[in-house]
Amino acid sequence: MERLRALAAVADHGSIAQAARTLHMTASGVSQQLAKLEREAGHRLLEPQGRSVRLTHAGRVLAGHADRLLAQLATAQSDLADLGDEVLGPLRIGGVGSAVRTLLPDALADLTGDHPRLTPTVVDGEAVDLVPQLLNGELDLLLIESWANRPVSVPEGVTLRTLVSEDVYVALSERHPLSDRETVDLADLTGTAWACCPPGTAPHEALVQALRTRGVEPDIRYLLAEHLTQLSLVARNLTASLVPAMSRRPAPPGVRFLATRPALRRDIRAAWLTRAQSPPVRACVAAIEAHRQDRGDIRPDEGEPPETGSRTAG
Fold first, then answer.
1. Fewest 10 Å CB contacts: which of 136, 184, 198, 303?
2. Is the pLDDT score of 303 beyond 50?
């Protein structure tokens, strides 16, 4: 089925490179899948077309069957998930650290108390690493971040639901010359050293874009995955950091949080495969939504419907 999925993606997008991006695979990985499919089918499925490829007649015939088979498989998976509403079995969750720390504990405590046959597991990480694990079936539910100035991108077939929308602050040491302000213009932070998550992650890209938009070339000296570790350096006046509302606590003494100009926001979104929305996934999202109202420093989504199959959502 994975080889047929690769063929269908090439048929839809017209190139191996675009198919690879859609499937979150490398181009060489897609090429290997298609080469094996050709051997199994006993027909040549692709032929060169300039610097790209096109489907042969046999390729078009098989791609038509692939579309129907993949649609039937998605229907079968949905039917199995809907056989009953009993919340049991494994629930494999991946999420960014701040969302795992803030949103999951109460929700999981309720779920496991109400459904003792449910077995949740949790890993933390960034969307760039977690989305491929969702797509290949290693994870069932993600809690990923989407910055307003750097929206998260997901492939078709993934449903997104906004759980939390929150302000983002600049964290400065109380010894920093601008720390007495309530709001700081990012343009005023020229020459400031920054702590941030590693390159490729949403927080890193959002910081770089926010500063460059204000004419500031980022001086990122500390690449640290955890906000609390970043704040320990901020407290010693070594660096500044962009910190979403839910990550402000616990903060070490000596740290001030200033609103930004222009304002920055971050969403936490639940993500799951549309075709694999199981009762445990639905129950977990509902439990998180039930508890989010108890927090006063973050604004919940106000009735936003799920987004399905959007490549970029922000």
1. 303
2. no
